[in-house]
Write a structure and sequence with these properties.
With about 270 residues, the protein is of the alpha/beta class. The protein has a single domain (about 1-270), classed as Alpha/Beta hydrolase fold, catalytic domain (Rossmann fold). It contains twelve helices and eight strands. It has helices at about 5-20, 65-70, 100-110, 125-135, 160, 165-170, 175-185, 190-200, 210-215, 230-240, 255-260, 260-270; strands spanning about 30-35, 40-45, 50-55, 75-80, 115-120, 140-145, 220-225, 245-250. An eight-stranded mixed β-sheet has the order 1-2-4-3-5-6-7-8, with helices on both faces. The protein starts with a helix and ends with a helix. Mean pLDDT is about 95; it is low at about 1-20.
Length: about 270
């Protein structure tokens, strides 16, 4: 997940260049909900049964899903949530964690609907989605978890994460993070945000085996065959699930929506139609 972050820049820039709808900064679709100590930004597209999108971390944003939103919104009420501290969502004052992110998402979902939702999480969004499904089974009908692994212990190379800082991101990826800072509610907290996310990423355990085992809903684990996390770890995660499905995306690294957008769309639609 995080071991190939330098290539995530390709996904972000390519998406921004191709987007016709300003996903992640769309006044026509965007709103805020205060979850206690932070205003969480979200966008809604389409109508029907709820489908929630949870994006990747730091480099990731609502734009992770822009290749899917238009099609999904023809059949579902798509709720794309900006994770706390990312983009237009406030950072708040609590220590960041995937569990906190999942609680934010739960509150936004319950603000918008009393129904259970299909949840699609990518990368960091998949890790928070595991907590969401485990802790709030009433809110998650089906889960698609893409590239969400057990923790930093799954990776052999932590060089990028160990050196992660706001200065590094601005220096090496100004075309991503200067625009992101411009839409932050308080851009003076950007360095704090990066520092707090780095703490999360250095944890050996993002999500426990017990949490995965407690998930009740049908869950699809998907990942690229060249993902930075070993295939064996995703298989172990899949085997813990009560109603698990597994999809290995050929010809892709972690960035499945960039490398294999049609394959990913087909896999997701097939799972949703089960």
């Amino acid at each position: 997940m995080k071991s190939i972050l330098t290539t995530v820049a390709i996904l972000v820039v390519t998406g921004a260049a191709c987007a016709q709808v300003p996903y992640g900064n769309n006044p026509a679709a965007g709103s805020y909900f205060n979850t206690g100590d932070a205003n969480i930004y979200y966008e809604v597209y389409g109508s029907g049964k709820p489908l929630v999108l949870l994006h990747g971390g730091i480099f990731g944003y609502v734009t992770d899903f822009e290749s899917l939103i238009a099609e999904l919104s023809k059949n579902y009420k798509v709720i794309a949530i900006a994770t706390r501290g990312h983009g237009k969502s406030e950072l708040g004052k609590q220590p960041l964690s995937y569990k906190l992110f999942s609680e934010d998402a739960y509150k936004v979902i319950r603000h918008l609907t009393a129904d259970s939702a299909i949840v699609i999480g990518f990368s960091d969004g998949a890790d928070q989605a595991y907590y969401l499904a485990a802790d709030h089974p009433d809110a998650v009908k089906r889960l698609v978890a893409i590239g969400g692994n057990f923790g930093a212990a799954d990776y052999s190379d932590m060089t990028f994460i160990n050196g992660l800082s706001a200065g590094l991101l601005i220096k090496n990826y100004p075309y991503i993070f200067n625009p992101r800072k411009q839409i932050m509610p308080d851009s003076s907290r950007f360095a704090e945000f990066v520092s707090k996310m780095a703490v999360i990423w250095k944890n050996d355990v993002y999500v426990s085996k017990e949490t995965i085992s407690s998930i009740q809903c049908p869950t699809l684990i998907a990942f690229g065959e060249g993902d930075g996390c070993p295939t064996e770890q995703y298989v172990k995660l899949y085997r813990l699930l009560k109603k698990g499905h597994l999809a290995v995306i050929p010809g892709s690294d972690h960035l499945v929506f960039l490398r294999q957008p049609k394959v990913m769309a087909d896999v997701i639609w097939s799972f949703l139609g089960d």
